[in-house]
Amino acid sequence: MNDQGQITTSASGDGRGGPEIPITGLVPASLLEVVWRNRWIVLACIVLALVGGFIYVLKATPIFLSTSRVYVEQTGPKIIENVQGVMTQSKNYLYTQAELMKSTPVLSMVIDKPEMNRLRTFQDVTNKVVYLKHAIDVSVGKKDDILSVGIESPYPAEAAQIVNNVVDAYITYNSTTKKSTAAEILKILQKQKDKAVIELEEKRKSMLEFQTQNPSITFETSQGNIIIERLAKLSESLTAAELRTVQAKSVYESVKLLVGDPEKLMQFIDAQGAKNPYGSVNVESARLTAELTQLRMQIDDRKKQVTQDHPAIAALQQKYDSLQEQLALKNKQYAEAQLAVAKQDYESAAESEKQIRSYFDEQRKQALDLNQQVTQYMVFKSDVARAENLLTILDDRIKEINVTEDTGALNISILEVARAGEVPVKPQKARTLAMMLVLGIMAGGGLAMLRDWMDRRLRSADEITAVLGIPVLGTVPSMSKRQTISERGMIVHKETASLAAEAYRTIRTAVFFGVPDGKAKVILVTSPLPGDGKTTLVSNMAIAMAQADQKTLVIDADFRKPMQHNIFSLKADHGLSAVIAGRSRLEDCIHDPGVPNLSVMPAGPEIPNPSEMLNSKAFAEVLGRLKQRYDRVIIDSPPVMPVTDARILAALCDVTVVVLRAEQSTRNAAMQARDGLLSVGANLLGAIVNDVSKRNGHYGYYSNYGYSYYGRHKAEDGADRSQASAGAVGTK
User: What is d(CA 394, CA 429) in angstroms, rounded to the nearest whole number?
Assistant: First the structure.
């Protein structure tokens, strides 16, 4: 077992070494494969479903449909639309009429007719109105405005009668209940008109009172436009003043920062294009700067002629310092002058902005007062106009209404009168049988999947390899049940050209190649449960190895149910149990079955403690001695699951072969047997599938074509070439 909890086995025949192969999950079967395996269940479900559907079609009462088609056109007076407070015409009036047709008043009129009580349709019905509500179907056409009224009934004539009576009752109900509709609408409209007249007078009176209270406002002149235009101009002026104030303040703040640096201040003033009221100061500064430059040049020239301490140098230096003081004074005066000018500009701009803002606020107040008055006036005017419009609409609608006996009724036209149905609509035979067919397929498929999911049998070689993690060494085809146990156990010897004999020789070759030479001298053959065919496999595989010039011994270690002596027709008096118990010599218990290179040791007399005897030191010594004498020792053991004998033997043998029966061995039993063998350190060489049907290709059985062809030529030649070939491979 590896770190992930997976049981692993050796890729080679040596379970005690070699690379490990993890056991993967089960190989899933395809849906078609599952259905094919359970085809009789699927077929039975389909047949049962079809039979049930056929019986239903034959036994079901035929149902007939009678339908009448009615066109309903609304021709009554219009109700005012899009006017608040007044009813609006329903856009879904056809659906309303459909529900009205199924309403209790209409259906009650139908039931009250005397002929309705004699209909067989209502024989067992207690509440006939409720019955009709569920039975009658009224639908609106998807592409037209036609109402279809229908009912399904086993009595076609009665169905037609009921539908026609429902349509007649609907027309009668509509004509009797809608006669006074126009008069009622006229009353409503007249009331609305009187109310509208009063409302119009009140609104006109309110508007006149407002005009009287505000005589100074001429609402029809351009005074309002003049105020608005003036306010717009003041707004533009205020914006410009705000911009000037911001700019002047920016210049003023910059000049304040540059007062200490005259050179940068001059550059800033030149860049801003500011006015310079003290131009003479600026010119004087320029003159002094030029004189200082000239005097510096003189000092530098004189220093080249005289020393630093010469009186001429001192005089020039004194004059230079005096000029610098004058220049500094002039720059200071210039900076102060520029600061004063910037401050004056800023204060002037701020004052101008303040004054313009005052004018703007005053003008805006006037505009707001005017807007409130104008707005109030427009509200009064709008109310008056709306009231006049409503009154006009009411007058127009009243004029359109013609108070007659039929005013307000719906125009109902019967396009098709209901007639007795000739062909039943239910049951629909083709549809019913098709549905039952689909139901049968679904039920059969579901039962097949359920049965396959609950079926724990191993069904293919790939599944065996995936579940157990060991390879499949070969498969043995099914043999006739009429053959005796001896015939089946010695079929390789008696029927050398048969498919079963060739299968055993294939298994022999797989064993030869499965492990290195000399590593599989003692071979244990066991199975998870009784009845898997391990005893027959032991005898035939031993015969096949003997035919390959391998000196082979068969040991029947199944003390509980020995069978090898029956296969080879030997006496069971002298056998393995007698040798282990010391009652017989080893040579006396080894028998010759009449097959060259083959010897057989039966189980011997019955013993009460098989497990203890197999686990004894005496048995190990006997097995060691036999291992020296023979090329192959094949041991037939009891099944793994019922008793512990197989596990004891697996720990002493070189390799172990597990026999499984096709379509019978289960995953759980096989896995438990494998785990039990691995727990004692058994070297699992592989599995052999027994009793494989010739039609089953999931176990690697490739029909009888190749085997039959090979067997026919072998019989003609009189020699078993495959035996010679296998013998050459298996010879030590």
Answer: 62
